[in-house]
Amino acid sequence: MTQTTTEPLVKTIRMIPPTIITEDTPKEKRQLRTAAYCRVSTDSDQQELSFDAQVQAYTDKIMSNPEWSLVGIFADEGISGTQVYKRKEFMKMIRMCRQGKIDQIITKSVSRFARNTVDCLNFVRELKQLGIPVIFEKEGLNTMHMTSEIYISMHSIFAQSESESLSGNVKWGKQKSAEKGNVAISYKNFLGYRKGADGRPEIVPDEAETVSMIYDRFLDGDSIRTIKDKLEAAGRFSPTGKISWSESTIRSILTNEKYKGDALLCKTYVVNCITKESKKNNDRPQYYITNNHPAIIPREKFDRVQMELARRNSLKKKKQKGVKTELGKYSSKYALTELLICGKCGTAYRRSVWSKNGKKKAVWRCISRMEYGKKYCPDSPTIEETAIHRAIVEAIRDVANDGGCQLALKNLQTHIRMYYGSCDDNSLVSDEIRLNQLIEEVMNRAKQSDAGSEEFLALSKEIAEIKKRITEKKEQQITARANESRMNEVLGTLDALKNHPIDYDDTVTRKLIDCIKVMSKTELLIIFKGGIEKTVNMT
Description:
α13 (about 405-425) runs antiparallel to α15 and α14 runs antiparallel to α15. The longest helix has about 45 residues, at about 455-495. Among the domains are: about 30-165, Rossmann fold, CATH 3.40.50; about 195-310, Alpha-Beta Complex (Hect, E3 ligase catalytic domain fold); about 335-400 and about 500-539, no CATH class. The strands form 6 sheets. The chain has a 5-stranded mixed sheet with strand order 2-1-3-4-5, sandwiched between helices. Strands 12-16-17-18 form a 4-stranded mixed sheet. By secondary structure, the protein is α/β, with parallel strands linked by helices. It has helices at about 45-65, 90-100, 110-115, 115-130, 150-180, 205-220, 225-235, 245-255, 300-315, 335-340, 365-370, 385-400, 405-425, 425-445, 455-495, 505-510; strands at about 30-40, 70-75, 105, 135, 140, 195, 200-205, 265, 270, 275-280, 285-290, 340, 350-355, 360-365, 385, 515-520, 525-530, 535.
């Protein structure tokens, strides 16, 4: 057997010299795929010219450079620079960079690229990692250079500070404009009005008819969903010019004070000019302008709608465990749903359909009796719907042809008008002026870090008291005006029905009757709006 000797391994090191590229060495060079980004801050005519000029200038600049090839001009017109995610073209450019379709970006300045310091640096860093430089012409910066980031940070901070200063100036300007009663209206999606030749709001007849229809149908008892269906069936156009409607749009129209000719200013304010976060204004002065422009809806009708909205909202209750029906929830399908109550236990009645021998009939039954049996309401009767309708028609006919009843209603209307007059005094105006003065003083003290002083707390307490007093006075006025308008409607409806044949109608029932109590199987107590009561025997 031969024995082999193992030689020790010898480590060697060999240097590989670099490849020297001389002028004579041929190399492949392609054009840099270059994109340009430009933006203007507003959509005014003057800025549109600037916008077109920027696009043309960058096109010429890139196309005239033999080392560059034009990928695209990305331009956002009339868009704020504080939020890049709202700039569609900017984000499209960033996506193309991530896809490797762009080699470099040129733009006029840091403020054109982004006024938000955080966004500016984040995108610059991301593009730098991708090997894509951003060239800022005004500042002479290239983001691939090592010292560029600190300069970009400084310039973007200046740009953001400029935005914040501009936002402050805008807020101040809006505040002063509101103090003078200047109302700015956006007509684009404002149904019923357009800008007139004199610059003031002008009523659009066809659209105003739609607005009036919404208010009338609501006061006649229709739900917002029912109004939506009727608008679409009638081919009425929404504020956006569409046949389809949303319930939120209808609710907004029903609560917009501009339809009665007024305007509430400073409803909201911007909390942060960078994030554009807005907040409902509950802690800053607001300004209410009365009779600012022609009204589509009479003031009294508008107030009645607000009261009806509040009433319906107050009826909505959560469904209780074990109960099959949502007690108290407003329904526009049948007028009796909210009018008919049990005279024994006070619970509402609900409609049911009975079927016997192939024949169907509608009846109304006490919900308490239906849900719990005779435990809580042993004596409530079941009443046929046709019998209730006949009793209502009889009661309305009696009141319409009874001069004494109508005289009582007119006297009540006179008392309401007198009450409304007593509420409508100058003290409300004085309170509102004092409130604005106090709020301004509190804000000044807060700026001076005097928010914890006794004087500050006393001012805050007085503000709360005046606000409460103003709210009470306004509610009194609204209630009085609405009641007077309601009595006018009751008297007008009764007068129209006088000496005329009457058929049952849900709309008329809602207009005239406040409540119907089922006293027994043969007796109903019908209470009219205004307090007149009629007992009707269903024999």
